[in-house]
Amino acid sequence: RYRDPNDENKVKPFAEQESWEENQIGKAILKFGSRDRKQKSDEFELVFENQIEFIKAEVMDGRSDKRESVELTEKSIMAKPTFDKLQDERKSLPIYRYKDKLLRAINDHQILVIVGETGSGKTTQIPQYLHEAGFTKFGKIGCTQPRRVAAMSVAARVSQEMGIKMGHEVGYSIRFEDCTCEKTVLKYMTDGILLREFLGEPDLASYSVLMVDEAHERTLSTDVLFVLVKDIARFRPDLKVLISSATLDAEKFSDYFDSAPIFYVPGRRYPVEIHNTKAPEADYLDAAVVTALQIHLTQPPGDGDILIFLTGQEEIENVEDILKYRLRGFGSKIAELIICPIYSNLPTELQAKIFEPIPQGARKVVLATNIAETSLTIDGIKYVIDPGFCKMKSYNPRTGMESLLVTPISKASADQRAGRSGRTSPGKCFRLYTAYTYYNDLEDNTVPEIKRSNLSNVVLTLKSLGIHNVVNFDFMDPPPEESILKALELLYALGALNKHGELTKVGRRMAEFPLDPMLSKMIVASDKYKCSAEIISIAAMLSVGSSIFYSPKNRKVLADNARMNFHVGNVGDHIALLNVYNSWKETDYSTQWYYENFIQVRSMKRARDIRDQLKGLLERVEIGLSSNLKDTEAIKKAIIAGFFPHSAHMQKNGLYRTIKLPQTVYIHPSSGLLHARPSWVVYHELVLTSKEYMRQVTELKPEWLVEIAPHCFKLKDVAGSDSKKQTCEGDLVS
Ligand code: CDP
Ligand code: MG
């Protein structure tokens, strides 16, 4: 429970509603404090079964400007923006008054570091200013984003502001989705895409300006881009490089880019009151829901919207369900609460919803991943609920295992999140952890991704760019040497590098595919086994990123049966995916088929898109399309040619041991081979939930390992005794 003494006067929307007293609604009980009520009729208490108690911890200061605040709140409730209104909005952004100074600075310096509060207009405005100033006469303006959703939504916004159709002068490009054309001069893209563009155009001659945006996020690709961009800037004096960041520690960027000047865009920020829970919360999802309802029921809706930070799609869907369930209990007695989820796999047409104006008297609650921390600005947020977690990649170079784990955020993240509430008026942030945790348990900053990632893809890219000495590469923060060695070792094992660490023909072909090296190797190897048509279908299905099957709670048995139909004969999960794809194709992409088989339409369409692109890339590396549907052994061998480092051998009762650096793993419950438990398997990936699970599993014959990867497996390793330890030695020099 929290109550802000300053808000006492505002807190009266339900005071007159006698019938609410001690009325059990869903899991929540709303009740007026009877003693207080006699004395002060407009005061009430909201009681939930698991009430959350907060203590006000501090107020983050900000520069308050009341006049602008009013302007902006009025704007945020207006109807769909017209072109003129959008121009007014552009002019009201903090960056607008620095436009001329900024353009002058860009003219005077080749590399400029730009720092400005999130929402000040860096991403949407700077490329437009440069376009208006004529920079696009000499080449495109490229602006990178760490996140796909951000690239898409920012491009959409900018094309709206310019009054043109998306994909024409303004476009975006993300992996497997290119929404640009020859006309495109403002190109928003993920950092990974720009990295790949270096392969086709090493000096990026078609660009006049490169803006590496959201630099503070320090994603793996952004960190690699820093090195490459710094390098090409030396021999392309005409190229302008902008490094933009939302955090103030820009000196590090400046130092790295040979003391590039820093341009500060003073932000507009209002004070934010921070509230912490009194005690740690055991169930932060429930706590987040209760807090959101507490806010919604006690604060007038016109006041502002709520933003909840969650770790991923699953949590967001969970919270959405719980919220809907609890809101149903209130019926129409309370103001409408509109739930807007946003995460990277959310279908594009639903993403726009978070920016849409809402009916008068309603309130929006945005359920977002870290994407809303700095990449996306949603106007009108006044309350932030921060459970204090995010999903973070971690990598163990010893075992070569990468995992995505729910991890406490850093202090810097917590502050960014809180700041999201004070953009258009004074805000409040409710942290679902104690002040003690904030000060004593959270790290100051998030560790850059390069220090906690598998680097095999990056190393392959660098090698294909002709950068031989990857160990002494000029990284802003060098990755652990062990990670680089591990990457070299894997690429050598896959045949992408020779033993001097030089790129081979296989490696060159692999680098053409925007995929993980093991997947690329599988595709390249499919040439030998004459089944490239099947393998690209499998690779596409594995790359979709969202689930293929769905299983409604009330029809679970039917859905499971439908799914198992693709697994007949214990073909393994890879071939089952192929069966799904082919069966869809055979019905001529019929709609009926989705329903009968409990398949996600969107995932299949995406798989088809990806497959088409992989097919194009096959041509580029001069691999013919060959089909060998009947020969499942050939298909499995091609899979193993890429994934032999992911082989495992059963020890007993469903307990497997991975072969390289033994680790105990299990078959994922979603696998068709869960009950068959073959003795030897190859898996696509490991996921850690309650146990370490292998996902997408296919049976193999141990002799195949010796046949396909003789440099890693000897016959004596795989034959005979089960307990014998297998080894894989990649004797490699870099
Ligand atoms: O990059 P920075 O965080 O400095 O700001 P921005 O992304 O350029 O956003 C500036 C303003 O544009 C935001 O305050 C939003 O009002 C608006 N915007 C939007 O309405 N829709 C988007 N997809 C992106 C930005
Ligand atoms: Mg931005």
UniProtKB/TrEMBL annotation:
<comment type="similarity">
    <text>Belongs to the DEAD box helicase family. DEAH subfamily. PRP2 sub-subfamily.</text>
</comment>
<keyword id="KW-0507">mRNA processing</keyword>
<keyword id="KW-0378">Hydrolase</keyword>
<dbReference type="GO" id="GO:0016787">
    <property type="term" value="F:hydrolase activity"/>
</dbReference>
<keyword id="KW-0347">Helicase</keyword>
<feature type="domain" description="Helicase C-terminal">
    <location>
        <begin position="292"/>
        <end position="466"/>
    </location>
</feature>
<dbReference type="GO" id="GO:0003724">
    <property type="term" value="F:RNA helicase activity"/>
</dbReference>
<keyword id="KW-0547">Nucleotide-binding</keyword>
<dbReference type="GO" id="GO:0005681">
    <property type="term" value="C:spliceosomal complex"/>
</dbReference>
<keyword id="KW-0747">Spliceosome</keyword>
<dbReference type="GO" id="GO:0006397">
    <property type="term" value="P:mRNA processing"/>
</dbReference>
<dbReference type="GO" id="GO:0005524">
    <property type="term" value="F:ATP binding"/>
</dbReference>
<dbReference type="GO" id="GO:0008380">
    <property type="term" value="P:RNA splicing"/>
</dbReference>
<feature type="domain" description="Helicase ATP-binding">
    <location>
        <begin position="103"/>
        <end position="266"/>
    </location>
</feature>
<keyword id="KW-0067">ATP-binding</keyword>
<protein>
    <recommendedName>
        <fullName>RNA helicase</fullName>
        <ecNumber>3.6.4.13</ecNumber>
    </recommendedName>
</protein>
<keyword id="KW-0508">mRNA splicing</keyword>
